């Protein structure tokens, strides 16, 4: 019986199986070849992007070095820091081989350093706190934000009244955490402090910074709101005039600023300055498919500069302040 089945029908069946197998092998081989080609293509692209990314980073570091040269040269050129200085000049993006380099230097002493709420030993700094309360007031923000931040920064664990927040509140959060009880390393840490919502931070961001030491506000580069917060009796209109006048004639000395009519008879809670030591350099470089964004905190002292902190960011953590 079986022989009967090994007739042309069976042969055709075997030939059929062989053909299907052959087709499958061809199909698999083709798929594998395509997959390999795709992988190779992706690998090449990945390698290319990595290479471009590294190239972009190298350019960003070069731009950062260049910014430091400008800042050092400025310290030799003049004893005052203002938007008239070379470092404050905004340049269009510079074309480099295969890409573009963009960079900007910002004077961080044109903002209020929130670390001034505490002294170097971690106790409350009354004048810093008074200033910050006025800044919050001018921005239409809640006063309790001042005590919440003070408690985050001060070394003790006793909540300040009213509005203070220490461990007992943060430990109830999900997930629980503790107050830092030390100065901020980066202003983005504000996000951890109770009450500092995205909306609050967006309002504050252009006017605040976090620097490792107590700093003075530079009246030549301070934002209008930062100037307005110097005293509760200052009027917005007077500060507008003052900022306009500053564009024509910068303040060469602190006394020139204090001699302004708008400030007559006012006792400022904090010391001000016409010089700056702390700068932020933002660099944005694109090379082919690679991109490098760098935030560098620069300290300048005695005509020397030092990079204190460097962050390679996908997005800048905080927007830069509006110039002027
Ligand atoms: Ca200068
Ligand atoms: Ca504390």
Characterise this structure.
By secondary structure, this protein is of the alpha/beta class. The chain has a domain at 117-207 and 219-266: EpsJ-like (Ribonucleotide Reductase Protein R1, domain 1, Orthogonal Bundle), CATH 1.10.40. The chain is built from 9 helices and 9 strands. The protein has helices at residues 2-5, 8-77, 126-138, 144-153, 167-170, 198-204, 224-228, 236-248, 254-258; strands at 94-96, 99-107, 112-113, 208-209, 217-218, 272-273, 278-287, 290-301, 304-312. It has a 5-stranded antiparallel β-sheet, covered by helices on one side. Strands 3-4 form a two-stranded parallel ribbon. Strand 7 (278-287) and strand 8 (290-301) form a beta hairpin. The longest helix is centred in the N-terminal third of the chain and has 70 residues, at 8-77. The protein starts with a helix and ends in a 12-residue tail after the last strand. The structure holds calcium ion (2 copies). The site of one calcium ion has 7 residues, from loops.
List keywords for this structure.
324 residues, alpha/beta, single chain, 9 helices, 5-stranded antiparallel β-sheet, binds calcium ion, 40% helix, two-stranded parallel sheet, elongated, Ribonucleotide Reductase Protein R1, domain 1
């Amino acid at each position: 019986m079986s022989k009967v089945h090994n007739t042309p029908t069976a042969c055709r069946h075997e030939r059929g199986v062989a053909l299907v197998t052959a087709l499958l092998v061809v199909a698999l081989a083709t798929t594998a070849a395509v997959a390999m080609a795709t992988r190779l293509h992706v690998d090449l692209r990945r390698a290319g992007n990595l290479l471009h990314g590294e190239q972009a980073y190298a350019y960003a570091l070069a731009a950062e070095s260049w910014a430091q040269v400008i800042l050092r040269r400025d310290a030799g050129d003049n004893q005052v820091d203002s938007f008239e200085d070379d470092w404050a000049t905004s340049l269009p993006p510079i074309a480099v081989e295969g890409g573009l380099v963009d960079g900007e230097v910002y004077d961080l002493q044109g903002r209020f350093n929130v670390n001034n709420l505490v002294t170097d030993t971690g106790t409350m700094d009354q004048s810093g706190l008074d200033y910050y309360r006025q800044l919050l007031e001018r921005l239409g923000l809640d006063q309790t934000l001042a005590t919440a931040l003070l408690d985050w920064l001060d070394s003790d664990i006793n909540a300040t009244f009213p509005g203070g927040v220490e461990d007992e509140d943060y430990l109830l959060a999900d997930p629980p955490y503790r107050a830092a009880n030390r100065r901020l390393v980066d202003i983005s840490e504000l996000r951890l402090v109770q009450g500092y919502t995205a909306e609050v931070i967006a309002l504050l961001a252009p006017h605040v910074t976090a620097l490792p030491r107590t700093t003075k506000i530079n009246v030549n580069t301070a934002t209008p709101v930062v100037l307005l917060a110097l005293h509760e009796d200052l009027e917005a209109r007077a500060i507008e005039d003052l900022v306009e006048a500053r564009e024509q004639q910068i303040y060469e000395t602190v006394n020139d600023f204090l001699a302004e009519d708008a400030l007559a008879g006012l006792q400022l809670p904090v010391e001000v300055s016409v010089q700056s030591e702390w700068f932020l350099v933002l660099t944005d470089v694109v090379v082919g498919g690679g991109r490098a964004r760098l935030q560098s905190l620069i300290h300048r002292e005695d005509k020397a500069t030092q990079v204190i902190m460097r962050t390679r960011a996908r997005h800048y953590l905080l927007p830069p302040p509006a110039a002027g």
